[in-house]
Amino acid sequence: MLVLTWKISLRRSVLKQQLVSNASNIMEPVIRINPGASKWDIRQRVWDYIEDKNLANFPRPVHNRIPNFKGAFGACSKVADLQAFAQTVEVKVDPDKPLEGARFAVLQAQKTLLVPTPRLRSGLFNKITPQPGANKEQLRVCSSSQGVKDFSVPVDLDAKVKVDLVVVGSVAVSETGCRIGKGEGFADMEWAMMASMGAVDESTVVVTIVHDCQVLDVPEELMGNHDLTVDYILTPTRVIKTECKLPKPQGIIWSKLDAEKLEKIPILKKLRALEEQAGKDVTLGTASHAAEPGLQANQPKRQPRRRPRRNSQQDTEGEAGQESRREKKGEGEQRARQQPARVRKESRGSGRGDEEGDAGRLAKGRSRRAVREQGPEEGGGEAASQRKLPQSLTTVYLGGIPAGLRVSELKAALRERKAAPLRLTWQGAQHRAFLDYSDPQVADQALEALQGLCLNDHSLQAELAKSQRGQKRPGQRQKPSVAAATSKASPPDTKSDTAQEAEQ
Predict the structure, then answer these.
(1) Does the predicted TM-score (pTM) go above 0.85?
(2) What are the residue ranges in the chain where pLDDT is below 50?
(3) How far is 492 from 478, CA to CA, in rounded Å?
(4) Which CATH class is domain 2-250?
(5) Ordered DSSP codes for 251-271
(6) 296-503: which CATH architecture?
(7) For a FRET experiment, which of 8, 262, 294, 472 has its CA 20 to 30 Å from that of 193?
(8) Dihedral pair phi/psi, residue 65, rounded to 5°
């Protein structure tokens, strides 16, 4: 016991020295921010830098995520050395991967761990309850994303909760406490909801854990009255006390939300009803106010960095690769079936509309699209696929698909709106999809049902496609002559069957 007390005292002494050292030796940011840069510009610079310098672990790429930087677990362990942590009973830690070490530190210190429900779909947060007498390894499991699911107990909005310390992830943060998240606003909203519940107040300590490169000069003028600021920054090499002067949000600013957001986050409805009963102004804003300026611009910004690297390969592989596929069609089909992982790796982020890997995430979308678009090259696969569908199809274009959205989530949304197509062509890398319906009347009904569709805080655009099946779609390259391929019409029937199975 005496040895343990001595070790704790020694660590706190080292931490105090580190705080003094940080105060006297402010490091120059490695990422320079241009004057007039927006929040999105800063996010993009940080994500690009971390990727270019290979500073992240799984999941990759880090774009549109809280980066899981190398050294995250060690940085997280410093939270237990904070004096504010020693005085806490209940700690709320976000579910991001780089904060897994912080969740473990809370459980190891035998404090109450609260983790927000992912995307606030089914409540505000859950209490993580390890098995009695859990050892260190079992606590590590509980702190993982799967453990959060398996060992959590929902905390109701009416529960009397007092959160003593909050740990959030960040994309960028300044030494003065100005924080920028990934742009979806969940950390800010979680704080506002806890403030409305009385679970947190201005004195509640907020900690963020980032890589050293993520500490940069964030202009204070970019901070809104809904943005959460931080009191401590933990990095692999530093502990920074920000002395932030900006106030934390006092509650939900309803004018920044819209009805669409309330539909996606049911707990907001309940909280709004409670505040309305208390006589507060709960007037909602419009969709344009609810979305952060510049957030919609994130989709095209990622593409220019990735396309040039793949275009050169696309040009060099073009005709020779197509000729090789025509001559060795059987081998190509077998390779596509047996080695899907390699196909996914080679095609990730390519931005090409006529290759297998546009989606970059889901094998189903890739394999089906590859079959449809390789058909003319390999001998009438398109026509073979058409024989299994009505002769005339009406295609709906669905644009504005956010990065990171899974095709399964889109299909679920289509089913909920009773707009499921006969066939879905997924082009996630281009942030779009094509939906094929049996006739124009069914397509019109689907268009009406899809108006106002919003996924992951992004409004999707649904309209009749400019071109129908059998014609060139946007983003597709002109295929080699069909006449040169029609002599090999029978094998693509097998690929068409595979495509049908992938769709189902």
Answers:
(1) no
(2) 1-4, 6, 19-25, 288-387, 469-504
(3) 19
(4) alpha beta
(5) S--GGG--HHHHHH-HHHHHH
(6) 2-Layer Sandwich (3.30)
(7) 294
(8) -135, 165
